Amino acid sequence: MWDWPNLTEGIQSALAPAGPHAGWVAHLSWLIFIGGGLILLVVVVMAALAMFAPERFRRAIGQRRTVIIGGVAFPFFTLTALLIYGLSGSSGLVTFGPPALRVEVVGEQWWWRVHYLDAEGETRLTTANEIRIPTGMPIEFVLKSADVIHSFWVPSLAGKLDMIPGRINSYRFAADKPGVYRGQCAEFCGEQHALMAFYVVAMEQDEFELWYADQVQPAPEPTLAQLEQGRELFLANGCGACHTIRGTPADGLIGPDLTHVGGRLSLAAGVLPNNVGTLAGWISSAQHLKPENKMPSFGNLRGTELRAIAAYLENLK
User: Is it true that the peptide bond before 30 is cis, omega within 30 degrees of 0?
Assistant: First the structure.
């Protein structure tokens, strides 16, 4: 397979592949775009000749043999060749044997629950809205849905696959190089479907192992008075009924696990960058920023209380 020039840049572009599976998709896409363009050009020229060329040319174009070759034989052999080529190329991307890592992703309205599984399929670590993987090895993604049909899609790494309630789909793909790649739900799943994004962070193997070892630890203890106040306010306002922060009484399972939320790139499934200001804004105005999500707006909190809770969460890294 030859390499097509990388004509686009960005963290969410199917035309900027960063892995073998996305590379094959981009390769086929360019082949179809260019081939289709050439065929369209030939059709336009033939149509122009049929309308404006001298009579002897129009008579030649209108022969039965021309119609059979151009209208039946050419599409049949072209599409058959394309199908065989596509299947032969994609079959080379299939890997057998145990994957390097299994990640279970559950689509919810409107966020992503992420479980890292062990060899027996048991959950070892739970996070949300961000997936970290080692580079250069196939990762198996086990896809589920908790409510409606979603679709898991990281354009720079692989094609999309539906997440269907009551059914488990899985596929494998890899990232060739470290980087941050943006994913997006590709199936309309409700009014806030467009605000259901996530990030895949590809890391070198040793860097990933350090990150994973840190993530399985409970949340760090507050070291400042403001952070201590934030934790107390978080628990006093009932946030622990929906969210888990390991190492604290908060053990809710309705919303995202926040044990190490401060280390994530974004909030609310890719809606906001992650910092103290956006954390406070999300807590006070979640329904304004993403209407009908399950997080209520805590507009009753004073500014100092919001900043304390936000500082505590931002410190959970």
Answer: no
